[in-house]
Amino acid sequence: MEDYFEEQAFNGVNFTEQRLKKGEYNRCQFTNCLFSGVDLSYLVFSECVFENCDLSNARLNSTSWKEVQFNECKLLGLIFSDSNPFLMAMNFRGCQLSFSSFYQLNLKGSQFQQCSLHEVDFTETNLTGASFSQSDLSGTIFEQTILEKSDFRAAQNYSIDPALNKLKKARFSMPDVVGLLYKLDIQIT
Q1: Maximum distance among all alpha carbons in the chain?
Q2: What is the pTM of this model?
């Protein structure tokens, strides 16, 4: 039988040494915790907040993320596409998400604020209405991605092929909007 945890605070716990109990975590707060390389498979996180945590290279097989907020977290190399997609909703502020994958996920309305998203895979992801404010998208893959109504106005270093993605009513600003022209191999002066 799985455990149920509600409105609990976990502060400074090293889950690489102390095993996180299998179960459902509802409205819990994780602050300064280490999950690097930990198996989080089949856990359920609902309305939880992760603050200044390191989840890099954690295993996420069928992990549920329902209304989860990540603030100032290190999330390198995570395969979010292995997670349970049912009711998935996540927002990120000041996070390092480089080398992670969101392949084929529905992330409508997700916020990626002030994040480092180097080499992230958003192939076939639904990012309708997502915001990438002040995020660095160097080397990030957008292919067959739904980016309608997404906000890239304060994002940097993105390269998006308009022929391979849905961009209707997406918002961009100068000078970074030239990231839509990279495939044409032209010089703009």
Answers
A1: 64
A2: 0.92
